[in-house]
Amino acid sequence: MIRTSATLFLTTLFVLFIFQNLDAQTTIDSWTPEVMVNLPVVGSPELSPDGSMIAYTVRETNMEEDESSFTTHIWVANADGSMNRQFTRGDQSATNPQFSPDGRYLTFISSRDNGRQIYKMYLDGGEAKKITSAENGVGSFQWSPDGSRIAYTMTDPQTDEEKARERERRDVILVDRDFKFSRIYVQPVDSDSATAIYADDLHTTSFDWSPDGETIVFAHQPTPRIDDRYKMNISTVPADSGAVTSLVYREGTDGSPYFTPDGEYVVFTSHGGRLEGIGIQDLFVVPASGGEPRALAHTYDRNATITGFDADGHLLITERRNTLSALYRVALDGSEPELITPENGIYNMFVVNRAGNRVAFSFEDSNTPREIYYSDLDSFEAVQVTSVFDEISFPEFGDTELLTWNSPDGMEIEGLLTYPVGYQPGDRVPLILMVHGGPAGVYSQTFTGQGNIYAIQYFAEHGYALLRPNPRGSTGYGKEFRYANFQDWGYGDYEDLMSGVDSVIEMGVAHPDSLVEMGWSYGGYMTSWIVTQTDRFKAVSMGAGLSNLVSMVGTTDIPGYLTAHMGGPYWGGNMETYERHSAVYFMDDVVTPVQIIHGSNDLRVPLGQAQEFYWALQEKGVDSEMILYPRTGHGPTEPKFIADVSNQIIRWFDKHLGR
Length: 659
Known about the structure:
Elements: H1 5-18, H2 33-38, E1 41-47, E2 53-62, E3 69-78, E4 84-86, E5 94-99, E6 105-110, E7 117-122, E8 129-130, E9 141-143, E10 149-155, H3 160-167, E11 182-188, E12 195-196, E13 203-209, E14 215-221, E15 233-238, E16 245-248, E17 254-259, E18 265-270, E19 282-287, E20 294-295, E21 305-309, E22 315-321, E23 324-330, E24 338-339, E25 346-352, E26 358-365, E27 368-376, E28 383-384, E29 400-406, E30 412-418, E31 429-435, H4 456-461, E32 465-470, H5 479-482, H6 492-506, E33 510-520, H7 522-533, E34 539-543, H8 549-553, H9 559-566, H10 575-580, E35 594-599, H11 607-620, E36 624-629, H12 639-657
Parallel strand pairs: 31-32, 31-33, 33-34, 34-35, 35-36
Antiparallel strand pairs: 1-2, 2-3, 3-4, 5-6, 6-7, 7-8, 9-10, 10-11, 11-12, 13-14, 14-15, 15-16, 17-18, 18-19, 19-20, 21-22, 22-23, 23-24, 25-26, 26-27, 27-28, 29-30, 30-32
């Protein structure tokens, strides 16, 4: 791709800024968690209506002195390579870029003044103009097809009475009362006055304009409670406000509605009229005027994400397939999905232009950082748009290989094995078993040099091999595989993991006496479980793990997800199921040193789960330590904390391996 000298200059300045803590060098000498977290992150592509321009975001890191934060800004590029420049600047992030339908403006969300508001800027430059004054800030937004209005969501602000109670310290909380709903507002672009288009107490989760701009279709649930997502339905409402008309109302989740280009139908994802608590997202279509929903062909994973429509009115969806991710075309006549992209990495973040003939997207693989690309849809060929990493020279990578093995019951399991940097065949090395969350998470062929709580290449550079299995319950392998750990946590999935470890030992890679393990969330659950089942690991690190399903189900913010896996609540004869799958009931033989890491403000896996397990370990005299991150929910979001996790873990592992 040809770039102008001015673009190269801007790119170089950007890279130098990102690596200012490396003495302004563009060569990274060594993988460290700090360097990896400091790498830029490219995302959120958006196409202009004619497909000639691409907007995207770049996240920067600030870890200087008393700062520990991320800032995101928008860049704009021409598809022909003639221009690629930073579009927004400043201390406040700019996100959610959207071109106006006439292609003259770029709009985005920023907190520059009075919370999250929508701003617009001419594409040829100038000052950003704030166009909303949402009292409680804007959630998501979307232009009307003719460009005259913008619809956005806003959560109900405090009432005057609530503000007075807070000032007077009378602000007691009545649980599950006085909900704050996310509602849809519509505002003319040339006005500062927005109208709530429905009065009903419905919590909006997503919406879409009809092609004629007369109607908005939206998904909603009865309250903002996370578990009420299982009661999500779809309705329509006049775009200038009015009565809500139910379109899809049935058991389970119906969400992500999109009007077809002709406005005749609405496509959406659905449980299919029954509760599927473990999770599926099948595709359905319903007449926009009302009627019976009709199922489209099942996708491979039955977990589709809707992107939009092509020029012929076919639905475009993205979906995981094993360790990969790709774009598919789905006809509304019920025929089988058609693969559009190659299956050679992670194609993601797809957006389609208004004409339906071009897509922008991200791509990455194990050794390739994420960049933004575009392609015409009639003949897919990825053209790189961004060049954020062109001037960065990375250290040597530990190679990543896709493995397949059979669990003891014959189920085929996949996983990704990252070798130590400089690995020589025949070397026996320490192995980290790394367990993902979910359990419906998945390890994919994403860039292994990116900074996150588990800095893969950092461990690889320190001589560790890392096995990332996708045990039963993982996403990407179809519904049956995802449901295969129903009422079976800690049993079949445990065998999947341990047989993977045995496979790497049999390959001659892992040293059987140098095994360690780490996992976050459900991976942390498996960590607590593993040490009650085996003493093969020299040390483990349990991140945000759940150890007692009985106390977990009544305190987590997603109890429905756990009861779906356990077959119901623990009463009514089901207590044995919960106890049978909880590590705290199997503490007798635990001897493995355990490091526990948790966020002090975690609502998904409450802190008590870590405290219960730590107390039991301490009572038994097992070598253990507990690390709490303040201001942290279910995972660190501050870059210094993100980097610290891997540093803490490698210290713990090295200590217990005598390294």
